[in-house]
Amino acid sequence: MARIRKAVSSGVGSASRKIVWLIAAYIRLSREDGNDESLSVTNQKKIIGEYLETFFEGAFTLVDYYIDDGLTGTDYDRPGFQRMIHDMEAGKVNCIICKNLSRMFRNYSDQGYFLEKIFPMNKTRFITVSDPRVDSFLHPETLQGLEVPINGLMNDRFAAKTSHDVCDTFATKRRKGEFIGAFAPYGYKKAPENKNALIIDEEAAEVVRNIYQWFVYEGMSKNGIAHRLNDLGIVNPAAYKKSKGLNFCCPQGGKNDGLWSPGSVTTILKNKMYLGIMVQGKQTVISYKVHDKVAVPEEDWYMVPDTHEPIIEAELFQKAADLQARDTRTAPSRRNLYLLSGFIRCADCKKAMTRQKTKNIVYYYCRTFREKSKNACTKHTIKEEAVIKAVLAAIQAQISLVDSLGDVVEEINKSPIVKNESTRLTAMLRLRQKELDKAINIADGLYGDWKSGDISKEEYTRLKQKYVSQAKQLKTTIQNIQSECQAMAKGASKNDPYLTYFLKYKNIKELNRGIFVDLVKNIYIHQGGEISIEFNFADQHRRIMERIENN
To answer: Residue 294 phi/psi, 5° resolution?
Structure first.
């Protein structure tokens, strides 16, 4: 309730006695203020109230307390501050009072903007109770001196240092894999005994597992998954957090209807937190004064593995990632992807093929030919039924081959002498190393050629860049070959993932999306109807075949 006091006789000028001051008492407490009792909301109210009762000269009405608790003063986008300014502009307030300048402003430029422009334009008196004491009505000269701007600059620098210290603290925690977010990712919750650690929230985690299962093995589209979750009455992550009593809000919070969307499903399918990796620092603020968030490049994120229990296995996560990279489309009314979606491609232009149903027969066509230019590629027409039959037969044949390979590998492993070295890889490694040495030697010799005048500076710069880039690529290639040599040296057994994956489907009679995800990488359609299939585990297959040939 507003407090009112009549003017009392004093040394105050006649102008002051005629004015009834409509007072807004502004109070701000930031998180950085910690547990400083002198800055608490209660104490600020007490100080302002005592000033009004004892020292304020003139008639006044205390309109309201305008409070921002837990907010920085480096900008003026604060609810309490904005409400106060709105009441001032509406004529409800003509005097603003606060404990000191730092409670109102931590930004030097904002302080000058309001004290020198906005408050005078709205004929609003401004008072601070503590040093430096300001009263723009009784002592306007205080605003023209050096003390107020110097104090404002010191407050600004204090905010800058505090911001830098807080950022350093957060960066240290992120590097150590400590969770510093206000709310745990969907599927997790903060550990009761440690707010910087995450534990699985089983209720939400089960939804996450279902999303991956439906997407990878049941061939559901993201739109289909969203519909299924909504039909089951499962609320989206934002609504779930609110249902658990968390004070969660987001930029679109007012528009959140609690329903899942394809976008929210995508977020779940791309979140590496479900692998047990602590991923933080995806966004940052522009500066301590400008709090707008901007995206941070992925290479600059903080990613620390094995910080919490995973919800999704790495293999399943990778399959989901591979499927998302494929060109898969469904009609808005259809929830499941077609069996061949994302797998069938034109053998010539390598683009995904388009599906069309004519008189109850489904055909696939080259999308480049169909949608872009009939001169860019050829039709590559084929019936869906023919592709499915061919792929099923090829998988059955591959399974039969794998079954026999497993027996051969077991026989080799029983031999007293087993050769695990790959002649092919060794020769390739030797060749690439020679190419790397040559590229490095040429790059090193270019400087002398430039200084001796054999080549110009432009030629030196261009050639240097060329050979440095070539050397970098060769180093990557050599690392890959060395990794393959190490894998070859480890040998193989009947339990090799390549063998077990195929043998898992030993007696299949028909295809489904799960089989495609596990075994098939791409299906290529050639002009004339020929089909070639690129299976997963091609490197492992080649390695086992080499092992058999070597032994």
So the answer is: -130, 150
483 token code pair: 């990794």
Residue with token string 């791309």: 270
Partners of 62 in the beta sheet? 3, 23
How far is the C-alpha of 501 from the C-alpha of 495, rounded, in Å? Answer: 9
238: tokens are 């934002």
Helix residue spans in 415-456 (DSSP H): 423-451
CA distances from 461 to 117, 446, 468, 472, 473 (A): 56, 9, 11, 17, 18
- Ramachandran area for residue 360 (φ above 0: left; ψ -120 to 50: alpha; else beta): left
Tally Cβ neighbours within 10 Å of residue 485. 16
**Per-residue model confidence as pLDDT tens digits over 106-118:** 888 899 999 999 9
d(CA 87, CA 78): 14
SS3 assignment, position 406:
helix
Helix (H) or strand (E) holding 489: helix 457-489
Alpha carbons 353 and 351: distance in angstroms, whole number: 6
pTM value is 0.63
> In this structure, what token pair is assigned to residue 177?
């894999």
Q: For 227-280, how does the pLDDT look when each residue is reduced to its tens digit (9 = 90+)?
A: 899 999 999 998 999 888 887 666 555 566 789 999 999 999 999 999 999 999
Concatenating the DSSP letter of every residue in 366-388 gives EHIIIII-TTTS----EEHHHHH
Report, in angstroms and rounded to the nearest whole number, the Rg of the chain calculated over CA atoms. 35
Handedness of CA 59, 64, 65, 66 (dihedral sign): negative
Helix, coil or strand: residue 65: strand
Instruction: Report the alpha-carbon distance of residue 105 to residue 110 in Å, rounded.
Output: 7
Contact of 416 with 482, CB cutoff 8 Å: no
d(CA 343, CA 517): 9
H/E run at residue 345: strand 344-346
For 164-219, the pLDDT digits (tens) are 787 888 889 999 999 998 889 999 999 999 999 999 999 999 999 999 999 988 88
Contact 109, 49 (CB under 8 A): no
